[in-house]
C-alpha cells in the first residue's frame, strides 16, 4: 500500500461586493453563523454574506418598525387580549380520582 499523498495549493474563494439599494432585492431565507453574520444562498449555490453596515442602515426602514403592520389579530400572540374562556379552562385542567387524590400518571404504583 502506498502512503504517498499529493497536496494541492490553497486558493482564495472568489468574492465580489454588490450594492443593494432596496430591501426588495434581499432574499427571503437567511442563515446566521454563531458569530451573528447573516448569509443566504442563491438557487445556484452562491453564498451571499450581508455587510453589517448595510443591515444597520436598514434597521431604520419602515418595514423594520415594531409592531409590523398588517398582521392578523391573534389573541395572546399579536394582541394582549386573552379570551376569558382559556383562563377558565386552565383552572379546570386536572382530573381527580373518586377518592380525591389527583392522577399522577398512566401507571398505578403498589
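^ Assign residues to that structure.
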Amino acid at each position: 500500500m502506498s502512503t504517498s499523498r499529493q497536496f494541492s495549493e490553497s486558493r482564495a474563494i472568489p468574492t465580489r461586493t454588490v450594492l443593494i439599494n432596496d430591501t426588495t432585492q434581499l432574499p427571503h431565507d437567511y442563515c446566521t453563523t454563531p458569530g451573528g453574520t447573516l448569509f443566504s444562498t442563491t438557487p445556484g449555490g452562491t453564498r451571499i454574506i450581508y455587510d453589517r453596515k448595510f443591515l444597520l442602515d436598514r434597521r431604520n426602514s419602515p418595514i423594520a418598525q415594531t409592531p409590523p403592520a398588517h398582521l392578523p389579530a391573534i389573541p395572546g400572540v399579536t394582541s394582549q387580549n386573552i379570551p376569558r374562556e382559556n383562563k377558565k379552562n386552565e383552572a379546570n385542567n386536572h382530573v381527580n380520582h373518586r377518592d380525591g387524590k389527583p392522577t399522577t400518571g398512566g401507571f398505578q404504583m403498589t
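The longest helix spans residues 84-91.
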